[in-house]
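INFO  loader      accepted 1 record
INFO  loader      residues=291
INFO  predictor   begin
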Amino acid sequence: MQHPVGAPLPPPHGPGQPPGADWTQDASHHPAPPPGHPAPPAHPAPPAAPPAAPAAGPVPPGGAPLQPVGAPLESPRTTGHVQLPPGGPVQMPQHAPAGTAVVDASQAAVAVLLIGPAGAGKTTVARHWADQRRVPTAHISLDDVREWVRSGFANPQSGWNDNSEAQYRLARRTCGFAARNFLANGISCILDDAVFPDRPVVGLGGWKRHVGPGLLPVVILPGLEIVLERNAARSGNRRLSDEEVARIHGRMAGWYGSGLPIIDNSHYDVETTARVLDEVVARSIASPPNW
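INFO  predictor   done
INFO  writer      dumping tokens
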């Protein structure tokens, strides 16, 4: 059952206090009178509340009064409050002057989109590339984010429909927001997705809208026999039929001639592919592709 957004939280109650007790009348608000003064009556009449004074929250033992729910924090130094820069669109890198040395991609702050068919090894390569970088780098996998949906998950293998399309779009947008926020806070990122060249609006164009013009797309495309072999080693809903893998691989061939950098990792291990990716990203930073 869903609860209304913004519904008031139930007031906490201390030990020995029934749930319905008035928790604002905490004994810590009524210190004992100094010596020589009579004690107040057991049930004094409540004083008139000042018109502009906000109600004070409970006082935890040895601490300052708690802030009411929804109230602004008093200081950036308050425990648990960390100011983060807003995540804006990732901007296109500036063209490097002629004769400039190749940029060290392992230390540059970048957002990379690794494109490839199922079984190309893009998720494994992306994770290894992020692990080995000398600057903080996040790996954002579209399939992982899409599978955050548990009840009601629309598996395209059961038939492509409006629900699976909507969940793909939502996952891409969520990944884009994450990438922008990581970059805004000094953390590079690499995303991976099976983007088709014949669907520019919802594919590469969608990623450009979600992340920004500075996104660097790289295609990883081994031969069909290699893709079939790697797909056969997969399990669960990540494993596709041979017919589906061949169909996807055929559509991916449309990236040839697109102007995007393409890595054929048919005979590369993961470490070698990641090293080649570093070189490709360095060239893309020095001379961004026109896409």
